[in-house]
Known about the structure:
The chain has a single domain (3-184), classed as 2-Layer Sandwich (Ribosomal Protein S5, domain 2), CATH 3.30.230.40. The chain is 34% helix and 31% strand. The protein has helices at residues 34-47, 64-82, 132-145, 159-178; strands at 3-9, 13-20, 27-30, 50-57, 91-98, 101-108, 114-118, 125-126, 129-130, 148-155. The longest helix has 20 residues, at 159-178. The radius of gyration is 16 Å and the shape is globular. The mean pLDDT is 96.
Amino acid sequence: MRKAELSRKTNETDIRLIIDLDGQGLADINTGIAFFDHMLDAFSRHGLFDLTVNAVGDLAVDAHHTVEDVGIVLGDAVNQALGDKRGIMRFGEALIPMDEALVLAAVDISGRGQLHWQVELPIEFIGNFDTTLFKEFLIALASNAGMTLHVRSLSGLNSHHIIEAAAKAVARALAMAVCIDLRRAGSIPSTKGSI
């Protein structure tokens, strides 16, 4: 089973997370940040990952530590659930429209965690959510999952639409990349023989 359960506690956050890469898109999310919960729910549902996140953070300071640390734990959990990565597709991509917004995400589970972000957000806040934090979440996710992640907005005027399309695009691209390719017969998808 490609499942992981992780906890991480610091002076700033206390996070418990469970992910099943072969799930049905069932989500149970509680970070104390309503918009971020909405994006994690979209990530779960559109990637068909069963995802439970319980996070308590220093929200009196701001949401930064909670959002970033959830990305760290989620990335670690994805990496752990993938094990030695035998048989996975490795690459995935998705182009997701949401009304006027159109966002592309591409994933390579390469072992080299990095984010390449070309997204312009017209406004800085959605409710009380600082829109720059979604990039911080993806940096932490990509770094800790060991994946190269490209996210580009091709169009969009509404920051909510752009970020939500990005969450869905990343989920769909990652779902494709972690899929088992039966033609690989359990081999590691790299000329190096390891990822």
